[in-house]
Each structure stands twice: as structure tokens, then as C-alpha cells.
Design brief:
- The protein is an alpha/beta fold.
- The chain folds into two domains: 191 residues, D-Maltodextrin-Binding Protein, domain 2; 152 residues, D-Maltodextrin-Binding Protein, domain 2, CATH 3.40.190.
- It contains 13 helices and eleven strands.
- Strand 1, helix 2 and strand 2 form a beta-alpha-beta unit.
- The chain is globular.
- It starts with a helix and ends with a helix.
């Protein structure tokens, strides 16, 4: 290991120690952290949060939050009453953008979270004045999945969804923000720029319409597609990388494939509601959760992709391949979907139904 790398690691470790030590030196307190419910929240509570308490002396009260839109409504109503239902919350990109547009999130001090400097690009969100308002927590991927009994060879490009004969058995998500629009834009139009105008969006939708003779299912029920893919009712489609890998490990003839243009990445962020009374403790929590070793623990316990470079963790190549890829990802253009709103949804559903 080179001297420069050794010095970098020592500086990084020192920053972690200072930040965590500062929180530990403060009076012990409790913070409320909300996340998606069920197995996800239970695993965080049992396997991840105790390490934060041990490092800082701050206990965590874990609560499950409702579905995204219901949670955003609850956060909005709480802000009007100048209260916060949680000190920290895990939110998907759409909730993050909607909440930021109406000023729901508290400003955060980057200097009190030095570990976030080690996150991958795009995972520290700031206002125009540089004030941080959200920090990446985790990611997950949607990929080009196939039934291996029909297609033994993995597709190399998203273009093969159009050029390969899938025997009329493609399964695609019916939502315009599934990532298929972005994958189409990157594959056939050179990037996201074409999505900036309605004329461009219509061109992307028209390209997707070319798939319709091959599509036997436009799904909202993800379980329906998974079961059909496993049974051979569908030969390929758009689905979650991690879930497909788990299905394959159970012996089902399915495979998740990262095309050369990239898988479709979805992200979740930590935010602090603006009326939280425990912002200092929340910053200590975010700092702790951003550590490479904690990110690796999340990968192993929850099957999510890390928001730090994989080389900063001790994940094996096999562990990382189960949740992600080093190919630069395709990202859903959330701001465009929100800006175009009902118009885009109507155009997309019109294409499906015609």
C-alpha cells in the first residue's frame, strides 16, 4: 500500500473518530428514525442501529413510515404544525424532490459529517448556496432480466429488447418513471437531453411503443411478473436486480443482466425534517451510516447497493455483484417526471392502451 493511500486512510479514520467522539461526548439522547416498514425496518433496528448507539451513546427509536405519498403528506402536515414525526427519515428520490421544493428539509452542516466526503458522486445534495439538505443512504437497481431457458446468452445492450425475438413475452412496468424511458433515451438518443422537451419525450415514448408487439404484460404488480418470469410465462423484462438474484439462488431459471449502457439505479436519502429538535444527533447518525464498513453491513444484511465506492469497502466481488455493478448507472430523471406530471403520465398510458 502506497504512502499516499496510507495517509488518506489515516486522515479518513481520524475524521470518523473526531465526528463520532464529539457525539459520544454529548449528553446521551434518543433520536427517532423512520424507514420503510417490515423486514427492512426490523433489520435496521436489530442489526444496524445498535452499532450507532455503541459508537455515540445515542439511542434510536425506530418507526416504520407509510408509503411514499402518504409519508410526504404526513411530513407536510407536521411542518405546518411546526412538529416533526421523526428526527431522520429515509426517502426515495421523488419524495426528496417534492419535499425540497416546498422547504420541508432542515439544512445540515457538512463540517459535522466529514465522512460524507467519501460518498460516490451525487449522494450529497446541496442548495445553490452549498448548504447540504440530504445525504445518500442506499441504492438499488432495476435491470434487463431474462428467463435462461429461453435466452441462454445474456443481453449486452438495452437495444436487444428491441432487436431480439422474445416470442411476444416481454414484461414491462407500466409506470413512466420505471426507468425504461431513461434507458431508451440513453440507448437510442445519446442521453437524457432529449427528455428536456415534450417533443423529445414523445419521441422516447414512440420508441418504447415499438416494443408493444413483444409485450404480453404491462405490470403494476411486481410479484405477478416475477412469478411469470420464473414459470416461463414471460421471457424477459424489467425487474429488480437483487430480487432476481435471490430467485436464481433458489434454483429458478432467471438471470439479471447489466447492459453496457448501465442498470437503472434508484436511490434513497437521509433527510432531517425542518422542525426536528435533534439535528446535531441526526448529523452524527448520517455520518455514522456513511462509513464504508456500515455501508458494507447494509449490503450484507439488506441486499441494497452501497453509496460509497466499492473499493472503499471490504465487500468481495461476489457480494458486490449481488447488489450492483461498476458500470455507470442510468438514473431516473425525477425532476422531469415531476415537472411534466399528468401530461407525461397521460401520454405514456395512452401509448400502452392504444
Amino acid at each position: 500500500m502506497g504512502k499516499q493511500m496510507t495517509n488518506s486512510i489515516m486522515k479518513f479514520a481520524g475524521a470518523v473518530a473526531v465526528a463520532l467522539g464529539t457525539a459520544q461526548g454529548a449528553a446521551a439522547q434518543e433520536i427517532t428514525v423512520s424507514s420503510w416498514g417490515g423486514f427492512f425496518e426490523e433489520t435496521l433496528k436489530a442489526e444496524i442501529y445498535p452499532g450507532f448507539t455503541e459508537a455515540t451513546g445515542i439511542t434510536v427509536r425506530s418507526i416504520a413510515q407509510p408509503a411514499d405519498q402518504a409519508w410526504l403528506t404526513q411530513l407536510t402536515n407536521a411542518a405546518r404544525a411546526k412538529t416533526a414525526p421523526a428526527d431522520l427519515s429515509l426517502v426515495a428520490a421523488e419524495v426528496l424532490a417534492r419535499g425540497q421544493s416546498i422547504g420541508l428539509w432542515a439544512p445540515l452542516e457538512a463540517a459535522d459529517m466529514p465522512v460524507i466526503d467519501g460518498l460516490s458522486d451525487g449522494y450529497v445534495r446541496s442548495n445553490d448556496d452549498g448548504t447540504v439538505y440530504a445525504v445518500g443512504a442506499l441504492a438499488w437497481y432495476t435491470t434487463f432480466v431474462t428467463n435462461t431457458e429461453y435466452a441462454a446468452d445474456a443481453p449486452v445492450s438495452w437495444a436487444e429488447m428491441w432487436t431480439t425475438d422474445w416470442d411476444g413475452k416481454l414484461g414491462l412496468n407500466s409506470a413512466p418513471n420505471s426507468g425504461l424511458m431513461e434507458a431508451t433515451a440513453v440507448t437510442f438518443f445519446g442521453g437524457y437531453y432529449i427528455m428536456e422537451t415534450r417533443e423529445g419525450l414523445e419521441q422516447v415514448i414512440a420508441k418504447i411503443a415499438e416494443l408493444k408487439p413483444q409485450v404480453s404484460l404491462w405490470y403494476r404488480d411486481e410479484g405477478q411478473f416475477q412469478q411469470g418470469l420464473e414459470a416461463g410465462e414471460y421471457n424477459a423484462g424489467l425487474y429488480y436486480h437483487d430480487v432476481t438474484n435471490l430467485s436464481a439462488a433458489d434454483g429458478n431459471p432467471v438471470q439479471s443482466n447489466f447492459p453496457q449502457e448501465g442498470g437503472i439505479a434508484s436511490d434513497a436519502f437521509w433527510i432531517v425534517p425542518r422542525d426536528s429538535e435533534n439535528i446535531d444527533a441526526a448529523e452524527a447518525f448520517i455520518n455514522y451510516m456513511s462509513q464504508p464498513e456500515v455501508q458494507a453491513q447494509m449490503v450484507r444484511m439488506l441486499g441494497v447497493a452501497p453509496v460509497v465506492p466499492v473499493e472503499s469497502t471490504d465487500l468481495t466481488a461476489e457480494e458486490f455483484a449481488a447488489v450492483g455493478s461498476e458500470i455507470a448507472p442510468i438514473r431516473v430523471q425525477t425532476e422531469i417526471h415531476l415537472r411534466e406530471g399528468d401530461w407525461l403520465s397521460d401520454k405514456y398510458l395512452e401509448m400502452i392502451s392504444q
